[in-house]
Amino acid sequence: MRGARHARWAAAAAAAALATAACGGGADAGSVPGVLSSSWGDPQNPLEPANTNEVQGGKVLDMVFRGLKRYNPRTGAAENMLAERIETSDSQTFAITVKDGWRFSNGEPVTAASFVDAWNYGAALRNNQKNAYFFGYIEGYDKVHPDTGTQTADTLSGLRVTGPRTFTVKLGQRFSGFPDTLGYAAFAPLPRAFFDHHAAWLKRPVGNGPYLVRSYTRGFLMSLRRWDGYPGEDKARNNGVDLKVYTDSNTAYTDLTAGNLDLVDDVPAAQLRNVKADLGDRYINTPAGIIQTLAFPFYDPRWNRPGTEKVRTGLSMAIDREEITRTIFHGTRTPATDWTSPVLGAQGGFKDGLCGDACRYDPGRARKLVRQGGGLPGGQVRITYNADTGSHREWVDALCNSINNALGDDRACVGNPIGTFADFRGRIGRHRMPGPFRAGWQMDYPLIQNFLQPLYYTGASSNDGTWSDQDFDRLVDQANAQTDQAASVRLFQRAEEVLRDHMAAIPLWYQNGSAGYSARLSHVALNPFSVPVYNEIRVG
User: Fold this and answer.
1) Is the terminal CB of the chain with fewer CB neighbours within 10 Å at N or C?
2) Distance of alpha carbon 488 from its chain centroid, rounded?
3) How many C-beta neighbours within 10 Å does residue 474 have?
4) Does residue 134 have a pLDDT over 80?
């Protein structure tokens, strides 16, 4: 998951409460009966479902919205939520029936038009939505979101409402996995209030999920409360969640252990040595669909000239993943050997060792490849990362030490910290990266396609480095067109081999989900996306 606009939800009650608390801290964890407090970071963009493609905003959308599908919080399997049926005979045209009885929290019914209108809005070029690309499979996308010029249509020709609860979707090509993508937040329905009173909606989003947004003060707190009228079976088992903004995950962890915070969903690396002693069985460490990589700015000619694939591969081979994951992450990371995640399983597309020698630590070959590729662009690698999460500095420093030792140059690699995640993402979006940069990917849905196409396909929504390769694109298109899953996976893995041969991004490690929680909470778990299953948490 991953721009420059920001909404500001202000509430006098929240502001008054926060006036007595230091920034990044908070009141006692148990100060609001039945409400849990959790660490968080400000989202990059306003919380429009089609404009949120980063983790922090995604946490909120997962509480406030429900879509046609929902990913099982334990297995990750795509299961029907608002979808009563999704039918197809050719994997290109899909007939969708929406369940009866669902409403938005403002009382509006959820209808077929709630989905079609939302998807048309998300796809439209004029609306500048970060996730517009996810609608690119639907017929007519080239008219509402052309690569150049202005849009020539207002709606996707492949969407048609056929009844109050029925609509059809026609894709531009066959895509057998399309139904499984529909649990992603970009495909959420929207009420008429979103369109008719857009500015008011942005101040207080209205959805159809188990929680309501009560207030948001940027840089401090977002308060969500249980919606008692929620019609789904996955009702909130607590009274609400207060998401507290922290600019340092170590501070959040300290607040947790001091009793000033209930939940931390990313235990910082500096605390991993002591977390079991601090929290005992209130520490969670579980596999997740997350991979960490180093991305490259291919918009910078220095990183996109012939031969730099050797430099990138040499850098990959200069990284001692085994040592870093053992000494820095203490069992919460596993060295990456492909560009997906083990949570997919072999049948789902994970192929252990696909990266081959290019992901094995070999200082001698690393030095040779960097020399053959013409040396480091500018003579030095500056790895950019956001500094508001304490764990990044430690691993970046360790990674640079590994590269420096392998290349025999103690100035070959340095860290380049950026103060906040929002600023970091903003600079990435403006193509202002001076060299390799931290790129973490948390799957949107459990398909191999999601680890490859959004990140590396030409013009894709999260292709932050703007890498482009015709062979890769062709193989992805062919994989999407397959109706047989095994055949599709094989083609996606061939596309991965193109990534490997060009080293379009350096795989670093697979990340576990880690969390710690206070004694007043129970039934705490992380889903396969490493996000707390907030609605299941009990307080008290």
Assistant:
1) C
2) 23
3) 14
4) yes
Q: How far is CA 483 from CA 88, 178, 350, 450, 488, in A?
A: 11, 11, 19, 17, 7
24: pLDDT strictly greater than 50: no
- Identify the burial level of 169 via C-beta atoms within 10 angstroms of its C-beta, where 0-12 means exposed, 13-18 middle and 19 or more buried: buried
3-state helix, strand, coil in the chain (%, to 5): 35, 20, 45
Q: Which residues pair with 169 in a beta bridge?
A: 94, 159
Phi-psi region of 182 (alpha: psi -120 to 50; beta: other; left: phi over 0): alpha
Give, in order, the Cα–Cα distances in Å from 528 to each of 95, 118, 288, 443, 511: 29, 26, 5, 9, 11
Query: Can you tell me the distance from the alpha carbon of 496 to that of 352, in angstroms, rounded to the nearest whole number?
Result: 12
Q: What digits encode the pLDDT tens for the residues 204-245?
A: 999 999 999 999 999 999 999 999 999 999 999 999 999 999
- Indicate the range of 16-20, 135-139, 269-273 predicted with least confidence: 16-20
Residue 485: count other Cβ atoms within 10 Å of its Cβ.
15
Residues in the chain: 540
Q: Which amino acid is at 331?
A: G
Helices (H), 145-274: 178-181, 192-196, 198-203, 249-257
For residue 57, give the amino acid letter.
Answer: G
pTM of the model: 0.79
Q: Is the pLDDT of residue 31 over 90?
A: no
CB 516 within 8 A of CB 249: no
Report the pLDDT value the prediction gives residue 417, as an integer from 0 to 100.
96
Q: How far apart are CA 90 and CA 114, in angstroms?
A: 25
- At position 148, the amino acid (one-letter code) is T
Closest by CA to 278, choosing from 26, 530, 519, 538, is 519
Dist CA 186 CA 52 (whole Å): 8
* 98 sits in which H/E element: strand 93-98
pLDDT tens-digit map of 385-432: 999 865 799 999 999 999 999 999 999 999 999 999 889 999 999 999
